[in-house]
Specification:
single chain, 124 residues, mainly beta, four-stranded antiparallel beta sheet
Length: 124
């Protein structure tokens, strides 16, 4: 079993930056592909970014492309989401997830483990 815990969320003004971290416990996640999703009030959970187990390939939703960067440090069992040029529409609870599929995965149902989420609020 893998436990994922997000951190780094908070309140930031539009145009600002924030970095989220997702730490794994229980077992290493170096062999897992990782992803970030977000869910705003009244909206469905949406894909944000994903990274292969090797860290060599990434993929982003069009809404965050060019602004967000996903990375991972397998030695620390941690995945990161660097968020720049934040917009009010980025406000949501952000979740990290892990999948045993060693590739880019953008479908939530194909992820095996989920964190509890961290709130990101962008003020205008």
């Amino acid at each position: 079993q893998v436990q994922l815990v997000e951190s780094g969320g908070g309140l930031v003004q539009a145009g600002g930056s924030l970095i989220l971290s997702c730490a794994a416990s229980g077992r290493t996640v170096s062999s897992y592909a990782m992803g970030w999703f977000r869910q705003a009030p009244g909206k469905e959970r949406e894909f944000v970014a994903a990274i292969r187990w090797s860290g060599g390939s990434t993929y982003y939703a069009d809404s965050v492309k060019g602004r967000f960067t996903i990375s991972r440090d397998n030695a620390k069992n941690t995945v990161y989401l660097q968020m720049n040029s934040l917009k009010p529409e980025d406000t949501a609870v952000y979740y990290c997830a892990a999948t045993r599929i060693h590739s880019i995965v953008v479908v939530a149902t194909q992820y095996d483990y989920w964190g509890q989420g961290t709130q990101v609020t962008v003020s205008s």
